[in-house]
Write a structure and sequence with these properties.
The chain is mainly alpha-helical. 66% of the residues lie in helices and 0% in strands. Helix 15 packs across helix 17.
Length: 359
């Protein structure tokens, strides 16, 4: 209950009610239990518009709190003054507040933990969390929830979508095949009469399914990891490896292709308006070398870049690239890789946004 009522005691501005109560010695304060005192503080804070952490309590604790508040009746000023005085005294004596559980501890340490350690601790925290499972489910990334839409019944999926935010539910539903999404959407009409107990049981079931998933040793999917490696691989070797993947595992090769972003992909991934910013990020000699090499390996990219910068700069770069003698393959690859690196750096900084990869 303590986590639900923690607040800066400076919020207690009661128009003198507490002070008046302390001087009303002719009325004996009521003898309240710890639960009743906590309920008084919760009621007091709610009455003054202070946000509480009641939603973080387990359903059982929330029910107990509601019954305790309902049974309190009216509280006289001396009793309120004594409860507030005791509560503020406890806060004054509090020097350092620690997380209530492993979940909050992981959230606190997240920026400083190694990826593998973070994944293991998160999994352990989720398994230990015995409070409302829907809070845990709502915090899961879309990628982790997406498989449930095909593995669970339409009714279970309808309940899950109803408990998620509108944005996350819409993102999930958009990835579902039309025939399946229609069934799930229609099943939501059947949730009108579902009881809270059944919703809780469905939440526990989904949480159990998520807990049963093995913790991955890698942050990114296999296709993304292979794509990142091939991004730094010379084009000839990259094409050869993709052809080999295509013959062994076509679906996986398709996912790898989507994760690759190399010089030839610039026209389909970069907004034309972002080209001037990108070219200012690239060293002049590097830009000339990349364009000279790209005339043969990626002519569409060369024209895309030249057409979307100032006419004067485009003419100068075109003349310099055409005048450049035969560029060594390794030099051309290195220059084109620097252009890609500049684009990735701008993307990471939030200065540009890449278009999604095509099929």
């Amino acid at each position: 209950m303590q986590s639900a009522v923690a607040s800066d005691h400076s919020t207690f501005i009661l128009d003198g009610e507490v002070e008046d109560g302390l001087h009303m010695l002719d009325v004996t304060p009521r003898n309240l239990s710890k639960k009743q005192k906590a309920a008084v503080i919760v009621r007091l804070l709610l009455g003054h518009g202070v946000s509480l952490g009641v939603s973080k309590l387990s359903p059982d604790d929330q029910t107990k709190l509601a019954y305790t508040i309902a049974a309190l009746g009216n509280i006289d000023k001396p009793t309120l003054a004594e409860v507030v005085h005791e509560f503020t005294r406890q806060i004054d004596n509090l020097a350092l507040s620690f997380p209530q559980d492993l979940s909050e501890t992981v959230e606190l340490l997240e920026p400083y933990l190694a990826p593998g350690t973070l994944s293991k601790l998160r999994a352990t925290a989720e398994q230990r969390d015995t409070t409302d499972p829907w809070g845990r489910i709502a915090r899961q990334p879309v990628e982790r929830l997406r498989p449930l839409l095909s593995s669970e019944s339409a009714e279970v999926c309808a309940v899950m979508l109803s408990k998620l935010s509108v944005v996350k539910a819409a993102e999930l539903l958009a990835d579902v095949p039309p025939d399946r999404s229609e069934i799930v959407a229609h099943s939501m009409a059947l949730t009108e009469t579902i009881t809270p107990d059944i919703v809780d049981r469905i939440g526990l079931h989904i949480a159990g399914v998520l807990d049963a998933e093995p913790v991955s040793a890698f942050d990114k999917a296999a296709a993304e990891r292979v794509g990142a490696i091939l991004n730094a691989t010379p084009q000839e070797a990259r094409d050869r490896m993709l052809e080999g993947l295509e013959s062994r595992d076509a679906p996986f090769a398709s996912e790898v292709r989507k994760s690759i972003f190399a010089f030839p992909h610039i026209p389909t991934r970069v907004e034309p308006a972002d080209v001037p910013l990108i070219m200012r990020k690239v060293d002049g000699d590097t830009a000339v070398t990349a364009l000279a090499a790209g005339k043969t390996s990626a002519p569409l990219t060369v024209e895309f870049l030249l057409e979307n910068m100032s006419k004067r700069l485009a003419e100068q770069l075109r003349d310099d690239a055409e005048a450049r003698s035969a560029t060594k393959p390794e030099e051309g690859e290195a220059a084109m890789a620097e252009v890609i690196a500049a684009i990735r750096e701008l993307e990471s900084a939030g200065e540009i946004t890449l278009l999604p990869p095509g099929e």
